[in-house]
Amino acid sequence: MAHTLRLDGQFERRLPTFEIEEFDALGQDFNALLAEIQLRNAELVDRQLRLERANQSLQHLADHDSLTGMANRARFASLLKQALTEAAVSGSHVGVLYLDNDRFKSINDRFGHAAGDALLIDVARRIRGAVRESDLVARLGGDEFAVLLAPLRDVGDAQRVADKILLAMTRGLRLADGVDIELGVSIGIAVFPDHASSDELLLQAADHAMYQAKRLGRGRACTYSPDVRMEP
Question: What GO biological process, any one, is recorded here (predicted)?
Fold first, then answer.
């Protein structure tokens, strides 16, 4: 009707009541359609948010150890490579601590897997509490952990962090059945660029230093040096 009025130029014409009612009904239909579109948009936004949260959850599972909640080996390797690239540009240092539980096998064999899991969870928590929030704690596998310290001023900073971790392990752990067990870790320290020029060599150097700590009596930290025996 409005189109006909525009073509005829009869702008002063009054619309019959039934046609006004048609416009009112049409307006209500448009409002209902708009409300439905808004509802569908809200549903789509909610679905998108749920998908994003699901993707984040999957990514977290892919990057973290399911038992301790710490980063896994793949995540550690990726961030170590990134940290060394940035340090090479800025001229800063990057430290790696390689940790092995001194008593895990005996506790796991004597008290069972539940006790072994409890030990790993508690050790991970104590390591996390001894380092900076910006430092990365990872479970590399089995009873081995690693800490990525970036940035560092020097080797002394890494040694001080290792000492804090050792101190955190001095208090025993009480298992669910009331049995008290002692904790202990051996720590190897390696720092870029002092001890290695690549991510793989740096982790290897820290690993070798850790075995040196075990050879010297366990429950201590050793810094990598070229004369450290390469075999475990």
Answer: signal transduction
What residues are labeled active site? 143
136-141 and 144-152 beta bridge pairing:
antiparallel
Q: List CB contacts of 188: < 8 A, sequence separation 6 or more.
A: 97, 98, 99, 205, 206, 207, 208, 209, 210, 211, 212, 213, 221, 222, 224
Dihedral of the CA atoms 140, 144, 150, 152 (nearest 10)?
-160
CATH class of 73-223: alpha beta
Question: Tokens 């704690």 — which residue?
Answer: 137
* Residue (of 140, 155, 154) closest to 99 by Cα position: 140
Element housing 113 (H / E) = helix 113-130
Structure tokens at 70: 């710490």
Using an 8 Å Cβ cutoff, are 189 and 221 in contact?
A: yes
Q: Comparing C-alpha atoms, which of 209, 42, 71, 211 is closest to residue 139? A: 71
What is the pLDDT, as a whole number, of residue 56?
62
The predicted pLDDT at position 6 comes to 46
Separation CA 159–CA 93 (nearest Å)? 13
In whole angstroms, what is the distance from residue 11 CA to residue 144 CA?
86
Predicted confidence (pLDDT) per residue in 56-77, tens digit: 655 655 789 999 999 999 999 9
